[in-house]
Design a protein that fits this description.
Chain lengths: 317, 350
Amino acid sequence: MSSTPVAKPLARLASPNRSPRHRWTTERIIFTTLNTTFLLALAALMIYPLLNTLAISLNDGNDAVRGGIGIWPRVFSLQNYDVVFNMTTIYQAFFMSVLKTVVVVATNLLFTSMLAYALSRKEFIFRRPITLIFVLTMYFDAGLIPNYLLIKDLGMLNSFQAYWVPTIISAFNLIILRTYMKSIPDEIIESARIDGAGDFRMWWQIVMPLCKPTLAVVGLFVAVGSWNSWLDTLLYNSGDPALTTLQYELQKLLASSMNAGMNSVAATGSAASGGQVTTPIALRSAITMVAAVPILFVYPFLQKHFVSGLMIGSVKG
Amino acid sequence: MTDATVSTLVTATGLEPALEPASSSRAQKRKARKNAAKDPKRKITWDRVWAQRALLAMSVPLLLYQILFKYVPVYGWAIAFQHYKPGRGSIWNQQWVGLDNFHNLFTGVNGERFRRVVVNTMGQSVLTLIVGTLGAIVLALLLNEVKNLPFKRILQNITYMPHFLSWVIVASLASVALSLPSSGGFINQGLMNLHLVDHPVLFLTQPNYFWEIVAGTNLWKELGWNTILYLAAITAIDPGLYEAAEVDGAGRYRKMFSITLPSIRPTIVVLLIINSGWILSTNFELPYFLGNGLVSDKSETIDVFVLRYGYQLGNYSLAVVAGIFKTIVAIILVGSANLAAKRLNQETLV
């Protein structure tokens, strides 16, 4: 990218230090205190539900039913996680989620980058119509049942293919990648061309390595989307227990707790597995954490890439 | 916000990084395109097609693929004109009934239910949009006043985080937060500690709270993420404006209301216009996960109706009619939203 976006904040950083608004006036002290307090409270509100769930998941199941657990477990116990990972369904669902995410990311990156390369070449004669057809899919959706019927008619119900085959290209990611590839200087492409590189080699050996940061961003968007999805399991693969995913299992648990009469869940019933007993609320907390942790774990490392990806994706198509 | 909204938006608000010369207006581009078409080098000849066979091999199969999975499913719309029974096999073996299903969905008992569903969809979306926009603007303004950069970055990291959690997790967290104190409902606990209520409120069983719960949960999840565009717009404001205002003796609030807000107004307007194009297309997961028999009058949205009533109860025909209605209205809304944004002399994606 050009240096302009960086230069601007740098210039702003340099100048205001000497400007009068950085003197500590009473007004400024009061405002900063209030503002900081408010923002800290907001941040606490964002984090509290997760910390609370984590605490409940690390608490003894029967004790958790008494309620009143804050952000620290009252009776520490790893029993809930023990139960979760001894449930064959959850165990399988975890690995299916991982497998699905890996396959979706790999196929998406491969095909989206190939197409993005073709559409980034200025000399390509069908560049405009093809781009338009892809961009329009961001706005047009035939609907849930027609999509279901197509998958059914293609014979992909209750198969792993239903997870990755229909979604190998997302128009949004295509635009991000294509925009970035357009910004690669023509000289690089031309010199490789003179050296005799064809388009496939150019894509794979010249453009792909230059796109690594953007590929990482797109890969992350795709990974998060795939890991978080549940509707594909419900619609296409709910008939085969071997194809269940973590989000779908969590959704079923949530649905049963909503149906079992609001809030009475915690007090009634218990889930047993492998001779161990815990309560639904503790179990649900543990599964929520298992479903959230991969995202929370990678998040701190990737936050700035997510944002830069959003900005790249914004450039005109 | 959907992906498409974001991209249209950022483009529309002129936030694009300087990859393309910003000066090239739409009209100029169109002219350039016309000239290019006359250019003999751009004419489509068999020679040129053959020379670009590698590029074609890279794109055409994927194009056909996309057409198969995104456009071909439209054949399923035929069900809208049939009395569809899955047992009869493929859609070519069904009984054709003309517009009966449309009549059925828009009138009588179903009509009443469907009207409620449309009102719920729009009500939840509008409330979410208003609350979300106001929240994001306020948070962007406050974050902008934080001069300690590491602290600001930590705040941003924390507030962006919920955006990446799945709706299942968010709904699960919300259902716990809103439950009785004994089930971990810290909202009730907090209200009782503050003596705002005497008895815990069963929020998720009260129809009248449902829209607010949807808007509130959306706010929690997307608040930070939605500030990104506003913060970017604020960064683009000429610092000279603030300096000039300071010389004239403007204080913090004066600068906020007389410089920052007017400067990001185009961003706000375009964002609002374009987001309102998606009014029928958002709000699926939360109403589906948190809705229950007690609140369905207020919770059921079009997508939930299609999934629950159509897919899960086997009323395919009615559900497809509802889906077609949604798709067509959504395209009209999104299209006119884009047009409106364009009218403001901004660039949009398509």
